[in-house]
Amino acid sequence: MEPLILVFDCGTQSIRAMLFDKKGNLVAKKKINYQAYYSREKNYAEQDMDVYIENICKASLELKKEFPNEWENIAGVTVTTMRDTTIFVDENYNLLRPVLVWLDKRFARNDYPFPLSRTVLYKLVKMYDVAKTQRSIMKTNWIRENEKDIWDKTYKIAFISAYFNYFFTGRFVDSTANTAGHLPFDFKNKKWLTKKSMNYYVYNTPPELMVDLKEPGTVIGSITKEASEKTGIKQGIPFILGGGDKCCESIGTGCLDEKSAALSFGTAATVEINTKKYVEPQKFMPAYVSLRPGYYCPELQVYRGYWLITWFKEQFAQIEVEEAKKLNIPAEDLLDKMLSRVPPGSDGLILQPYWSPDLKIPEAKGSIIGFSDVHTRAHIYRAIIEGIGYALKEGMENIEKKLPHKVERITVSGGGSQSNSICQITADMFGLPVYRVQTYETSGLGVAMLAFVSIGEFSDLEEAVKNMVKYTDEFKPNKQATKIYNELFNRVYKNLYKSLRGLYFELKDIISLPY
User: Fold this and answer.
1) What's the pLDDT score for residue 430?
2) Is the confidence at residue 306, as pLDDT, over 90?
3) On the chain, which terminus has fewer CB atoms closer than 10 Å, C or N?
């Protein structure tokens, strides 16, 4: 009777209910898809909490029905989820409005100005414009300005992870590893900001509105009778606090220290490192809380990362999409073949993936340079993959400069990691070996390891990784390809933004004119 951990992974477009054993095997899985969000107005991205809860229950009940014997061995339940997806609740923990999904792009007017002391301080450190931009994207500030009735009724503001914890246990608490997003959290000291903090007035949200926090891995209670009736999970089974999807992914690929960097090839592509040292990869960009006790996860993100593949398919790959339908295979399988037809460096075609601008450079736009008559759709596709790789490599270098060790290996997860061609390109670009683990569901695997530690099956995450992470594929860099990529990265890619910055400002001015 091997104990199993039941993991719920709540993503932007689906819920996965999964059972993992102590050897890292994904024993059973049920996935339920749903619409990512709805938009009442332009730039809005909202969702009803019922969509998440009802599909958690549906996935759980269907998993139980299909795997009744395994279901009896559940020893713990935990959740990992998308980050920065915000809720507002009243004193009875009833939701006051729809969920604000992380893709929401509404902006506050900044009706509440900075105190003079903060204005002077931000200007001294040359971060005033960034602080203003950051404040404008705070959903809490937008609610305060535009939905005063909701703001006045709000008892707690939290991410959806807190509501999931409440649904299963009746306790409205959250994990410090779920705090990555736009709420006033002091990541270095792992507590909510106070008015004395330099950054408090960027958020301008009273700390008493924040949810109580516990360390990831804390057993906060057990499955309640009500949750049991809705999900089919036995009442009384321990419930363990998990963490956000990205920090769980990094642990799920075995990245425990500075010698490894975890790349996530998802809708938002990220590079993340686990380290004891608190390292801010950029100003106003904190290091998040790791699942590993005493560690942080500095991270840099390409916001529209592997979403660019979807963009490419819609705009340029109708032939492959239609052919894939006939063959009943993913279109990405055919796109993969396109990659092999183009040499490293895409014959001089270079893409900068700023389809959505960075916080520090809001004027930036995406760009593709180097076109000539030799270039084809295949070149554009490879340039997309390479452009995301360049951006992640630049992010890793920014973090690496502040760490005591150089990164020696790369691990990959997310949809793009299923492509051998993309993994090989990554190894060549970084000049480091790339490792892929036994399952695509690395976020679920990472939080399952945490749960096994919490119920006493392993002494710590290091032991859990040794027993549960298996590297099934290694991609070694090709020295000649690495040399080409290093030249293009250092001599061209890293100079693209500063060379085009003035033109980006001109574009912004021109398209905003009332012609």
Assistant:
1) 98
2) no
3) C
